[in-house]
Amino acid sequence: xxxCINDFEGPLDLxxxxxxxxxxxxxxxxxxxxxxxxxxxxxxxxxxxxxxASEYLVMAAELIHLKSRLxxxxxxxxxxxxxxxxxxxxxxxxxxxxxxxxxxxxTGVLKELxxxxxxxxxxxxxxxxxxxxxxxxxxxxxxxEILKDxxxxxxxxxxxxxxxxxxxxRKELSVEERKVYIREYISKRKNVKFTDLFEDYSKEMIVVTxxxxxxxxxxxxxKLSQKDNFGEILIEKV
Length: 238
Hints:
Blueprint: H1 11-21, H2 31-44, H3 47-51, H4 54-71, H5 90-117, H6 144-161, H7 175-187, E1 191-193, H8 203-218, E2 222-225, E3 234-237
Antiparallel strand pairs: 1-3, 2-3
Helix pairs in contact: 1-2, 1-5, 2-4, 7-8
């Protein structure tokens, strides 16, 4: 649990705040001034808070020890490895503040990256084989002739989608004339494909032929049959 006293998350955070409030450069801080301000702040805190924040008191002891050394002009004893104090010189205090400030700035960057990452959602890859119908495959019984017929039929459909060539002509097609042609054509053959009745696929020819066949069916002159859906339509004389 991180305990905050007056919005400070530890003694180094408080010291850094005091340095910035005094508008000092960390590399040129007035150590005695900062120590005095820190101790003043500690004295102003409720004693119940201090009981729960011993780290502030530990830093206060460190700073009192440092201040006493500065007042006595004692040099740092580098050979005393058993010293219970970690801050024995102004340089030690500056280094701790500089290091803490670096961590603090990095924390801000990491927090910003965490917020940006929260805007993205990822999904763990899944095995999609369970959604594949493994039985859906060709049996291999088709031959090249069926493929050729399918290609020809596709080409016809593509031709239907092309813009029709229009031209001015004096000759008009009539349903009666077209019925005469169909009767003669069917009489020569047993079964006739619907598509065999077209000399060309002009708009006029398609409309007139279609109307003629409908009329002949109505009069029961011919019979239409189709074995499969979308299969070829056969015409038989009744």
